[in-house]
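Aim 2 progress update. The chain analyzed this quarter is reproduced below.
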Amino acid sequence: MRFFILKSSSKNFFIIFLSFFLATAILFCVNYFFMLENLESSLKKGSSDKAFSTLTKQLTTPTLENILEPNSYDLLRIKIREVIDLVDTIIRIEIRDENGDINVSANNNETLNYLATTYRIESIFPSKLNGAQLSLYGIFTTEISLTISNYPFLVKIYFFDKKINSTINSQKDHILFVTLVIFLTQLSLFFFCLKYAFRAMQDTNIKLKKVNRLLEHKNVQLEYAASHDSLTTIPNRAALIGYLHRKLVKMKRDNSLYGISKRPLPKMLSTSFKNRGKFALCFIDIDKFKPINDEYGHLVGDGVLIEIANRIQRASRPKDFFGRLGGDEFIVILNQIKNITDTVKIIERIQRTLSEPMKIQGSVIRISCSIGIGVYMFDESLQTSKILNDADSAMYKVKSKGGGTYSFYNY
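Predicted structure tokens:
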């Protein structure tokens, strides 16, 4: 079992802040142009409403009852000229029949000449301009359906109002100020919320750090407990199997590196490689340990196991691996041994150390041990289970002869 470490990052916090800021800035621009558009639409509507009212009044008089008569068109032209004179923002009126043909039209030549002079062109004829050109010159249009003497007509009116542009320009600063106030208010509210959110995040981070420290400590404890014997505090069976597996993998890698060169290595270097890969596994079993538990009790028996672990560890070399396999069985892996003599010296030192009397809770205990040894160099067929079984077999060979000594499996 392993506890997962909790993490908290300010990256998401920054992304949220940046996203809100950009969204607010976009909203600011949209509000600004929307308010300008509303103002312009309102001003244009005022001009068109005035024109429509005047036009309706002029074109619904009794004199236009026979509108289809030829002389009535002349009268109609006079009427729309009067409308243009009354509404100074109108620059052209077109009256079209149901086929779309222009029956009658009239222009405000004074305003058209003003526009042509302003934009330095020869002339401006509104009906020949497209929408983009009309907008460029500040001209806008409206179309209305009008019934004259029971006949339907489509009336298209072109407007140019200097006051609209001047009013919009004069109101831009005010609109900008209002929009900016809204924008700053939104930002202020956001920063107010941001302040408390950041403080809450800091508090959360502090709590997470405390929890993480606790979890890290627990993880270390769990890892130690999973790989160490609870009684003797030395590596346990799982740690032993893992160590032996890693050792075989390393020996295979070193052997591959050694085998890369087609030319033979110098004698000294070749010997160094061989010694580095040679190791011995010693399977140690305490002789007649059960009677100690039966006679002195398990508490004394546990004390004996702890003392055995301490003595074997002192008798081993720093580069050797030492662990408890289980019960009264221990394993010592002797690394980088040069020859059998080196192995025997260490084994005999371990046996001498263990044969010395132990004083555990007022009781003097004497023990002996049986040791089975397997000596190995790298071999592709080597397996962890085989190495342990070989040493175990050698140890039981000693046991069958009364114990208290050692035996090699493959020598």
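The domain at 232-408 is CATH 3.30.70.270 (Alpha-Beta Plaits). Residues 162-227 form the longest helix (66 residues). These observations will guide the mutagenesis experiments scheduled for the next reporting period.
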